[in-house]
Amino acid sequence: MANDGPVALTVWGAEEDEALLQEIFASFQAHYAGQASFQITYQPQSESNCKDVLLGDLEGGADVFAFADDQVAALAAWTRLKMRRIFRTPLFPPPWKRPAWGTLSTPIR
Question: Span 7-97: which CATH code?
Answer without folding.
Answer: 3.40.190.10
